[in-house]
Amino acid sequence: MRLSTLFVSSVLAVAAFALPSSKERFAARMARRANGTSHLQAVAFDPSTAPRSKYSSRPKITSANHTSFSSNWAGAVLNEGPGTWFTVQGTWEVPSPGPGPFNANFGAASSWVGIDGDTCGNAILQTGVDMIYDNGKASFQAWYEWFPAFAQDFSLLVGPGDHVTAIVEATSPTTGTAILINNSSGEEVSVQLSSASALCQQDAEWIVEDYQENGSMVPLANFGTVTFFSATAETVSGELFGTASANIFDIEQGGSVLTDSQVGVSLVTISPTFA
C-alpha cells in the first residue's frame, strides 16, 4: 500500500457499520457525543426558509472559482468523474475556538479532509478535528468517519497551535484508510475501514463544517482561521492535483454568509466573517 510507511498504529474497523448501543457510545466517546455525531454531506442553503440576521448578506462573487453556499460546509472541493480520487490530504494549524454568532456560551466546528459528499451523496470517507467552545473553555477531538455511519473518535491528543495532517485513501469504493498525524507531538493514528455504502471517488474536499449532533446542527463557533496547506489530491492513476481550480464553499445561515473561503495552488483558507 502506497501510504503504508506512514502507519504507526492501525485499527481494523468492522465492515458492517451497525450503530453502537448507548452504553457502548458512552464508553467509547465523550459525553457530548453519546447520541452520535455526524459530519454530513454538503447541504445547499435554502434562502426561502431562513430568517434574516444582523451579519453580512451574500456577497458578490468575484473569484474565478465557482462558489456554492451551504448551511454546513466551508472550504474547497475538486469535482471530477466517478473513480477519480485515490487519496486526499492536507495540513493545518489547529485554532482555538471562541463564541460564535448565534450562541455566546457554546459552539463548535470541525476541520477535515475527505472523499465524496458533494456531488456524490452515497458516502463520505473523512477524518479531522472537532473544535468545541463551551462556557469559556476550548476542547478538541480527533475523529474519522465513513458516512452515513456516525463519526468515531481517534485516541489522538490535539491542542491549539498543533499542526495536524489528515489523509484519507480510497483503496476501493468500499474500503479505505484514514490517517491523522499530530506533527507537533509526533503522534499518529490510522484506521482501515470498509463499508457497504460505496464511494464514488469523485469529490476531493478540504472543509470546515458546522456538524450535526443529536440530530441537529451545533451552533457554529468562531473557529479563527483554518488554513489547509500542502492540500493535494491524487488520482487512482497517480496524477497529483492542487486546489487552485477547486470549487469554493461558504456557510450561509439565517440569510447571512458566515465564512470567507479562498484557494491557492495547494492552499485552502477558511475564515469567519463575524468577530
TrEMBL record:
The keyword S-adenosyl-L-methionine does not apply. Keywords: Signal. Residues 1-18 form the signal peptide. GO terms for molecular function: glutamic-type endopeptidase activity. The active site is at residue 209. The keyword RNA-binding does not apply. GO terms for biological process: proteolysis. Pfam families: Peptidase_A4. SUPFAM superfamilies: Concanavalin A-like lectins/glucanases (SSF49899). The lineage of its organism: Eukaryota, Fungi, Dikarya, Basidiomycota, Agaricomycotina. This is Peptidase G1 domain-containing protein.
